[in-house]
Amino acid sequence: MKNTMVNAVISGLGSTALISYWYSKLGIVRDAANMLVMDIKRGEAVVRRIRELKTVEQTQNTILHVNNWMKYRHLFVSKLSYDEVVAFNSFFDDCIVIDEEKKRIDTILDAGLVAKATIIQQKIFSIEDLPDVARQEKKDKYISEVDNERHLFNPRNPYDTIFGNIDHFVPLSNTPAFNKLKKIADRPRYLPWF
Predict the structure, then answer these.
(1) C-alpha angle with apex 107: 101 to 113, nearest 5 degrees?
(2) pLDDT the model gives residue 155
């Protein structure tokens, strides 16, 4: 009798642990799908904005703060076809390239600002002793010349790379693969604590 009772308790606890594990696994997959859906929508919005403006804004933030596809794709490989996985890989690779090239643009532009400031300072310090009005006019002339030179520090190569990626960028939000992911993300929570 005692063994039967112990076996029943152990079986009950084991079953509860197994069910809890299964529900938590479903929750992890659902949460990962939610993050991927948000990343895809953000990536598409940023690319759409770049296409509309035909330029990369300096205030543009990164597309992917974290590459969730690399982190969670193992959860979805069995649910997606080979071609769908390739499409997701391509989408996220393009987002990464755009982010990296945007960082290169920012670095080049920051270096350009420092270089411009250095040139202006050197020119201002080289002004000889002139009356205050003439000195101020010469100073304003130097500042205007350097500030108005737009192509002095124009990072063309990163822009070309970004627009090359955007030319073959394929949105995922109207594909069956995205719908599968969205369906997983929209699953209801089965138990309140999962």
Answers:
(1) 135
(2) 67
Summarised one tens digit per residue, pLDDT across range 40-58 is 999 898 888 888 888 877 7
Terminal alpha carbon distance of the chain: 36
User: Token pair of 103, please?
Assistant: 């960082």
Nearest of 96, 103, 97 to residue 58 by alpha carbon: 103
Neighbours of 191 (CB within 10 A): 11
Q: 30 near 185, Cβ under 8 Å?
A: yes
Write the CB contacts of 189 (distance below 8 Å, at least 6 apart in sequence). Answer: 27, 30
For residue 22, which amino acid is it? W
Q: Report yes or no: 152 and 14 within 8 Å, Cβ to Cβ.
A: no
In the chain, what percentage of residues exceed pLDDT 70? 79
Pairwise CA distance, residues 138 & 121, whole Å: 13
Output 162 or 94, whichever has higher pLDDT.
94
* C-alpha closest to that of 170 among 86, 105, 100, 104: 86
Output the six-digit token pair for 77: 């490989």
CA angle, 166 then 172 then 178, to 5°: 165
Cα separation, 177 vs 183, whole angstroms: 10
Residue 159 clears pLDDT 60, i.e. is over it = yes
CA-wise closest residue to 45 among 64, 66, 69, 72: 64
Tell me the chain's radius of gyration from C-alpha atoms.
Answer: 28
- Given a contact cutoff of 8 angstroms between Cβ atoms, the answer to whether 184 and 79 are in contact is yes
